[in-house]
């Protein structure tokens, strides 16, 4: 029987490598590590949990024991993975995607997320899309229309309107800046 541990702030593939190294350092066998969770073959002792929590904390991660916190971490990880790291389209909306992946009614997930995080899931998705747009604009490999298409906006104008509302500047104004000016994903 496998045992799942939920880990906060695992937001990118490099995080998986870092968390895997933590488990290796503590000689804790791991079956699989995914964004937001580690699947173990055996349960941890209380001493192992304490050591793991401390070492994860040193690397900017947090071991989550509370089911609600773990669920919110999973919601964030799924959204971040889809917006920033997935090359495949969703083929559905986020409410269906999250409900299917997390085996909970979307209304429950939405209310829980809003109550704990202070923003809606939709707002979190929008913030992630804008951060991704900033990254794509900064690297200057795609046109605004291509970025809008990649992020599932109906047009470059629609992306521009959301971008200006979120950042206070248009994508063109942002493009003229020297630095990337984007925030770490786990701080959104």
Description of the structure:
With 188 residues, the chain is of the alpha+beta class. It has helices at residues 13-25, 46-58, 67-85, 94-102, 106-117, 121-138, 144-150, 156-167, 171-176; strands spanning 3-8, 30-34, 37-40, 62-64. Strands 2-3-1-4 form a four-stranded antiparallel sheet, with helices on both faces. Helix 3 packs across helix 5 (106-117), helix 3 packs parallel to helix 6 (121-138) and helix 6 packs across helix 8. The protein is elongated and about 55 Å long. The model has no long low-confidence stretch (mean pLDDT 87).
Q: How many DSSP H or I helices? A: 9
Please give the order of strands in the largest beta sheet. 2-3-1-4
Main sheet characteristics: 4 strands, antiparallel
User: Would you list the SSEs in sequence order as H and E?
Assistant: EHEEHEHHHHHHH
| Gross geometry | elongated
Oligomer: single chain
Strand content: 5-15%
The percent of residues in helical segments reads 55-70%
Poorly predicted residue ranges: none
| Terminal-residue CA separation | 35 Å
Q: pLDDT average, as an integer?
A: 87
Which class best fits the helix and strand makeup?
A: alpha+beta
* Topology, number of strands: 4
Radius of gyration: 18 Å
């Amino acid at each position: 029987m496998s045992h799942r541990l939920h880990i906060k702030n695992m937001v990118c593939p490099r995080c998986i490598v870092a968390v895997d190294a933590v488990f290796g350092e503590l000689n804790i066998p791991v079956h699989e590590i995914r964004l937001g969770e580690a699947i173990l073959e055996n349960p941890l002792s209380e001493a192992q949990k304490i050591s793991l929590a401390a070492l994860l904390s040193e690397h900017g991660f947090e071991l989550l024991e509370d089911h609600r916190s773990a669920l919110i971490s999973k919601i964030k990880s799924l959204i971040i993975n889809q917006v920033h790291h997935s090359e495949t389209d969703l083929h559905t909306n986020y409410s269906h995607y999250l409900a299917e992946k997390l085996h909970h009614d979307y209304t429950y997930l939405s209310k829980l997320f809003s109550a704990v995080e202070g923003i809606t899931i939709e707002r979190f998705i929008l913030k992630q899309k804008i951060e991704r747009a900033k990254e794509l604009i900064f690297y200057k490999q795609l046109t605004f229309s291509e970025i809008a298409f990649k992020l599932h906006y109906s047009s470059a104008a629609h992306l521009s309107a959301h971008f200006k509302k979120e950042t206070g500047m248009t994508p063109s104004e942002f493009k003229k800046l020297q630095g990337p000016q984007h925030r770490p994903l786990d701080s959104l």
